[in-house]
């Protein structure tokens, strides 16, 4: 589509910000019951997951320490899938794991690509 040519950097920045914000929202739900209470009691594994979601999500949004934050978030999502979803069945659409798989691979992509435009890292490179 010719009219979309030249907007790759902006689209990537939007992907990074939106994915980080949605990930951060998972941590906010666990710790602050916002916008709704988390439906399960918090175990030590869920406390760790919530901490990663809050911290990594915030860093990814602003584009600071983006590569390590996204790599850790990707790993947390992979662990979350294999411990919470894969035990419920083989297929992600049946075990409820399609969202966490998307997080895993989106954050792996962000870890390989870096912060890009509209980021603290991008602003400090000038």
Distance between the termini: 32 Å
Structural class: mainly alpha
> What profile does the largest beta sheet have?
none
Shape call: globular
Supply the number of helical segments.
Answer: 6
Q: Can you give the mean pLDDT? A: 95
Approximately what portion of the residues adopt beta-strand conformation?
under 5%
In angstroms, what is the radius of gyration?
Answer: 16 Å
Number of domains: 1
Which regions contain 5 or more consecutive residues with pLDDT less than 50? none
H/E topology pattern: HHHHHH
Proportion of helical residues: over 70%
DSSP strand tally: 0
Per-chain topology:
Elements: H1 8-32, H2 44-62, H3 66-85, H4 92-95, H5 98-113, H6 120-124
Helix pairs in contact: 1-2, 2-3, 3-5
What does this structure look like?
- With about 130 residues, the protein is mainly α.
- The protein has helices at about 10-30, 45-60, 65-85, 90-95, 100-115, 120-125.
- It contains six helices and no strands.
- α1 runs antiparallel to α2.
- The model has no long low-confidence stretch (mean pLDDT about 95).
Q: Which characteristics define this entry?
A:
single chain; 126 residues; mainly alpha; 6 helices; globular
């Amino acid at each position: 589509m010719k009219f979309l040519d030249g907007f790759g950097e902006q689209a990537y920045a939007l992907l990074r910000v939106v994915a980080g914000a949605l990930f951060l929202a998972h941590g906010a739900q666990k710790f602050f019951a916002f916008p709704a209470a988390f439906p399960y009691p918090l175990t030590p594994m869920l406390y760790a997951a919530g901490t990663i979601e809050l911290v990594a999500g915030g860093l990814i949004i602003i584009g600071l320490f983006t590569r390590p934050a996204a790599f850790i978030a990707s790993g947390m999502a992979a662990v979350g899938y294999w411990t919470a979803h894969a035990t419920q069945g083989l297929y992600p659409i049946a075990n409820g794991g399609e969202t966490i798989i998307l997080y895993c691979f989106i954050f792996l992509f962000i870890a390989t690509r870096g912060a890009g435009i509209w980021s603290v890292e991008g602003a400090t490179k000038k």
